[in-house]
Structure formats: structure tokens, C-alpha cells
Model the fold of this input.
Amino acid sequence: MSFVLVIGLGWLLSWRLGTPMILYVAAGLSLIMNLVAYWHSDKIALSMSGARRIEREDNPYLYRMIENLCITAGLPLPKLYIINSPQINAFATGRDPKHAAIAVTVGALEKLENEELEGVLAHELSHIGNRDILISTIVVVLAGVVAILADWFLRISFWGGNNDDNRGGALMLVIAIVAAVLAPLAAMMVQLAVSRKREFLADASGALLTRYPEGLAGALEKIAQDGHHMRYAHNATAHLFIANPFKGKEGRSWFVKLFMTHPPVEERIAILKDMRT
Done:
């Protein structure tokens, strides 16, 4: 999907400027983008979120908890990161279980009880075990690159080009505007394609891992009541988190509501509570 989006924008630019070289550049850019996304998208997501790497001596409590869960799940120990935010949240990233990382906010560490934090970590480990993390993290790079290319295309169509008479300059300007609007939306739709059902699956898998669904349910209840805003929240990385990091803005931003990447917290809590019966 990322290859098609970038190549499509490259074709429009080459048509606009009257040179096939732009198309070749777009193909090369798409290839480079996918390689970078595969090898470095986790570092990009962690950097965008303001996450800081920690070692065992920095937080033995967190390390012991994640080690016990990894032994139960049969997964290698991921790298651990801390996000300096009072909001209760966490996310997993990486290209595979051997190169995975989990980031947890300070708010989660301070406000969640032992069983609740364990439920959150089990949820994120389930994303790693279910192989959700690669596509979720690559989308971070995809959304940014497509948005930049769409903006370039709009600017070039508006200001540049000497072939307006014989190539339909007015028509191309309209196409440029449409592409500039729809291309980033298409990238966001890829984010939405990381199905909400994967969140439900991670909830269920995490509850089975801890054998205590009330822990994650309690964490989600606290998350629903938490009104803190995350300083380093981005539209490109929002889908990675266990809960929407923009929830502090939901009452004001219709755009965030339109592109929510998480199921309603209340629905997730109800399903987890039903697992007890």
C-alpha cells in the first residue's frame, strides 16, 4: 500500500513537470522508505514519543514484572522505555519479538496497581506475540512520507511548471489539491486498517496471559478517567498506544474522533469483565 501511494504521487509529479525522472525518484524513495521503516521505524516511533531507554537498575520492579510475563508467554525480553508523561498509557513497537520494545508512561507506573500494570504489560506483550507491532510501526513512517509528498505536489502544481497550456494546468492544479487532501487521508486509512479487532485480541490474549482479566479492566477504567494530555502525542503514533493518547482533546477535535484507531474503552472493559464468567 505504501509503495502504491508514493508511486502514484510520483507519477502525478512527473506528469505535472513533464519528466519521467520524478517517477524513478518516487520508486527509489518508496523502496528506501520501506527499508528504513522495516529497520528503524521502532526508533522513529520511540523518538517521536519522547521515550527514554531504561536498564534493570533504573526500575527493578518493572523489569521483574516484564520478565515473569515473558517467561509465561515464551517471548524474549523486550527493551524497556519510559515516557515522561502523567497520562496512563503504553505501547509496543519493533519489527519482530527479538527486536521489540515496550514504552510505559510515568503515569502508568505511578497510578496503576500491581495487577493493573501487569495487565497493561501483558496486553503489549500480546501485540508482540501476535506480530501486530511491525505493520503498526511502519505506518508511522508511511503517514509522514505520504503527507510530505502530497504537500510538495500541491506546491509544485501551484507555483511551478511551464507546461500549463498544453498539459492542462488548471486541471492539474485541481488534481494536486485533491491529491494533497486525499493522500494523507489514505495513509491514515492504513492506520485504521490495523484493525480494532487487534486491540480486542491483545486484550483477550493479555488477560489469558495473566489469568486475571480484572487487572487490565481496572487499568482501562483508570485510563478512561485520566484527563491528562500526552505532550508528545502524534497522529502518526496514536494507534500504537493501548488507549488513545488524544483523549484529553476528544471534546474539542472532531478530526481526532473521525480517525479514532481504538475501540471504545467501555466496550473493552465489558468484554474483559465477561471473561470472568
